């Protein structure tokens, strides 16, 4: 029933230098939950996904997608897959 | 927390949350094999403690009292390790859990309920077979009921321990470095 939701959370979190603990506290979740989301072992609710996107000031589709994300370098440099 | 229970956390909630999220015991339950071993140990300790309690109360054996007291500390320790492995999934109030933890708590309760159905079936069939075989079942009513009660009480903890996943703290060092870099 639960479809895999792909995410770029780990990458964005590392880029912004935010620890799991800090992100978890900011969005009212447990640090393990952030880790499970990053591993793809838990799909966040819309509520939590929006809170995470809001924390990073990004649109939610920049962080979560039903389709696998293209590598960032491909997107930046426009290489076709 | 992303929960429908918007009541603020009490001092007790915060203290329990801190307690359940302490990392000192993490190495005891870092792998699935270790968690299984702790659950098996807890089951054995529970069975032994229960037998000792029945020995002390029902059959009035003095040695059973001392056995029960001797088993109490290891039982509490094993309970603590399993609770630590689940980060207080069953110990914390719902308001102190996030959406994933609340979903896991419901899943564990459903799993425990299914397993308990088989335990109760076994107890019922066992009692029926014993009665048909001419065993005096009157004397067994209280011990069996007490045993089933204890199993029913602790089954969610065992299920939570058995189904807990590895903690996502493999890059703790990286996390700490990130935190430090952020603070600098």
UniProtKB/TrEMBL annotation, chain A:
<dbReference type="InterPro" id="IPR010982">
    <property type="entry name" value="Lambda_DNA-bd_dom_sf"/>
</dbReference>
<protein>
    <submittedName>
        <fullName>Helix-turn-helix transcriptional regulator</fullName>
    </submittedName>
</protein>
<feature type="domain" description="HTH cro/C1-type">
    <location>
        <begin position="9"/>
        <end position="63"/>
    </location>
</feature>
<dbReference type="Pfam" id="PF01381">
    <property type="entry name" value="HTH_3"/>
</dbReference>
<dbReference type="InterPro" id="IPR001387">
    <property type="entry name" value="Cro/C1-type_HTH"/>
</dbReference>
<keyword id="KW-0238">DNA-binding</keyword>
